[in-house]
Amino acid sequence: MCGIVGYIGPRDATPILLNGLKRLEYRGYDSAGLAVFENGRIAVRRDAGKLVRLTELIGQSPVSGAPGIGHTRWATHGAPSAVNSHPHTSNNGRVVVVHNGIVENYLRLKEELSSDGATFQSDTDTETIAHLVERHMATGSGLAQAARKTFQEIEGNHGVVMMS
Ligand code: GLU
């Protein structure tokens, strides 16, 4: 389990998230990423490696806005790689999730979601959370309610932050 930072407020989330992740570096991690709400869309930057790599990536391809969420990953399911780094996004691009922990029943959930049409981009257990939340929102739940329903479906101990 590694680190999660979230920011809601009037300022640009990007430097706040990077600073927060920096403060969590001592916990150890293999990848880092963030998502911010930028011009009406969720923008994600993430990569394997140290935070300096994420900072470089954002230098090359800046993002700004709020709210935002950030994550340092210690891989349990799926190799440390850009595609397995958090945040993970649902197929419609409207739900983005960072997660510490293990979705113990992710294989069964992944099978069910795949047969229901979800396309998985990563090898992580975490991505199931994004797809489950998207599905609950598609049947009329708001984000909070969709999250609560999802938490009843996933097994294990979790720290999760998400936005839509
Ligand atoms: N199980 C998740 C993964 O492998 C989260 C790992 C963590 O807690 O950083 O991506």
Would you write up a description of this structure?
- The chain has 164 residues and is of the alpha+beta class.
- Helices cover 33% and strands 25% of the residues.
- The chain has helices at residues 13-23, 51-60, 106-115, 127-138, 143-153; strands spanning 3-7, 31-38, 41-48, 68-73, 88-89, 96-101, 158-163.
- The strands form two sheets. It has a four-stranded antiparallel beta sheet with strand order 1-4-2-3, with helices on one face.
- Helix 4 (127-138) packs across helix 5 (143-153).
- It binds glutamic acid.
- Glutamic acid is lined by residues 1-2, 73-78, 99-102, 124-126.
Output the radius of gyration: 15 Å
The strand line-up of the biggest sheet is 1-4-2-3
Approximately how much beta-strand content do the residues carry? 25-35%
Small-molecule components bound: glutamic acid
How far is it from the N-terminal to the C-terminal residue, by CA? Answer: 23 Å
Name the average pLDDT: 97
Largest sheet data: 4 strands, antiparallel
Number of strands: 7
Shape: globular
Q: Helical amount among residues, as a percent range?
A: 25-40%
Order of helices and strands: EHEEHEEEHHHE
Number of helices: 5
Unreliably modeled segments: none
Structural class, by secondary structure, is alpha+beta
